[in-house]
Design goal:
Elements (H helix, E strand, L loop, with lengths): L11 H27 L4 H9 L2 H5 L11 H14 L1 H20 L1 H4 L2 H7 L4 E4 L17 E3 L2 E11 L7 E8 L2 E7 L5 E4 L13 E11 L3 E2 L9 H27 L1 E2 L2 E2 L4 H29 L5 H31 L5 H12 L6 H13 L6
Parallel strand pairs: 1-4
Antiparallel strand pairs: 2-3, 3-7, 4-5, 5-8, 6-7, 9-10
Length: 375
């Protein structure tokens, strides 16, 4: 087997992980549509990723993991999302919650959450709430002091993989300040089964209700810091880019195999022009994302806003590629068994993930125009 080439420096340990993810992704791709149809979490996929040491790889070295570079991490998520975006989304949220808790509580709990993450326990990210305006790091729900910690009553929405989670990363306001906790789901945490959506159906991102749930003082972590590994901000652009890559592949395959008036559809000039346009802009989105990952790996502060820009562009181009796929696919692309329509449904979901494209556009526009924050 030929060793894969990567456009970034790769350590031997990282190469093993990346090659293994590529192998697993081929199997994931073959059954992704079935899981989507049933709206069922692909638990076997998540287990396979853990067994392949992908969880260990994403955990930073300072808390006991391999410490993938941002560039390698982005490649992992892109590869998974191209094959099975629901698995990519759940794994990204699982890794985001597990890594965050390991880092946020490292000085108080030591290696507890890192050890649980490495042992294969399932984590979920429960930060977004109905009243937070898509800004998941700014909770509006207040936790009240009680013996042993604080009590939370409220809801968290779009919690990917929550039905199999053994730990939740939860935030709430404590004394008016955002605070972050690890929470073990118990009978005070209930699932409100809202998940019958158009896209990313196999994430089962349900709404969670908290009824006087104890936020334990010993499970409280510090606030996120600049040096923390930003799993979710770095992973979200890759999910949309992977979906866009898959949509473009499906479009090309259909255009090459579908014969119209004696010639493949790919010979029609309008198809060539439209494909050129989306392929170039998709390449530009990849390049912006890779730049942001390079900045993150090299400690350049602009990486965070550039990840937001990359998410915005990736979300937009994923929808555009998928929409073109439906146009090129025609009636056959509109059938439920066609991968083309599934790519479109999945692509639309990326724009809704926090921060949404509207929120990002507002932030970027304000910065470009020099409008002070809050005005």
């Amino acid at each position: 087997m030929t060793t894969a080439q990567f456009p970034f420096p790769v350590r031997d340990a990282e190469r093993k992980v990346l090659d293994r993810v590529a192998e697993l992704a081929e199997g994931f791709r073959a059954v992704a549509a079935d899981y989507d149809e049933r709206a069922e979490i692909a638990v076997a996929h998540l287990t396979a990723l853990h067994d392949a040491d992908v969880d260990r790889a994403v955990l930073p070295e300072r808390v006991g993991g391999l410490g993938l570079s941002y560039a390698a991490f982005g490649h992992v998520v892109c590869t998974l999302a191209k094959a099975d975006p629901s698995t990519a989304t759940i794994w990204t949220m699982h890794a985001g919650a597990g890594v965050a808790l390991a880092e946020f509580t490292g000085e108080t709990l030591g290696s507890f959450f890192a050890d649980e993450f490495l042992a294969g326990k399932r984590f979920a990210n429960a930060l977004s709430e109905p009243a937070s305006g898509n800004r998941f790091l700014n909770p509006q729900q207040d936790a009240e002091p009680v013996p042993g910690g604080w009590s939370l009553t409220g809801a968290k929405r779009f919690v990917s993989g929550c039905e199999i989670a053994e730990y939740l990363l939860v935030n709430a306001r404590v004394d008016g300040v955002p605070a972050f906790f690890g929470v073990v789901p118990d009978d005070t945490v209930s699932t409100i089964p809202i998940w019958d959506t158009l896209g990313l159906r196999a994430t089962r991102s349900q709404l969670l209700s908290f009824d006087h749930t104890l936020l334990r003082a010993e499970y409280r972590g510090r606030a996120p810091g600049f040096g923390d590994f930003a799993v979710i901000p770095a992973g979200l652009p890759a999910i949309s880019l992977g979906i866009a890559d898959a949509a473009l592949d499906a479009l090309v395959e259909h255009a090459q195999s579908r014969v119209i008036l004696g010639k493949p559809l790919s010979h029609q000039q309008w198809v060539q022009y439209e494909v050129a346009d989306v392929q170039i802009r998709l390449a530009a989105a990849h390049a912006l994302y890779e730049r942001a990952l390079f900045e993150a790996d090299n400690g350049i502060p602009s990486f965070f806003p550039n990840l937001s820009r990359a998410k915005y562009l990736a979300n937009k181009i994923a929808v555009e590629v998928a929409q073109l796929g439906v146009r090129v696919g025609g009636a056959s692309g509109y059938l439920k068994q066609s991968p083309i329509q599934r790519h479109l449904r999945d692509a639309e979901a990326g724009q809704l993930m926090a921060y949404s494209t509207e929120v990002i556009a507002g932030e970027i526009g304000r910065l470009v125009l020099g409008v002070p924050e809050g005005e």
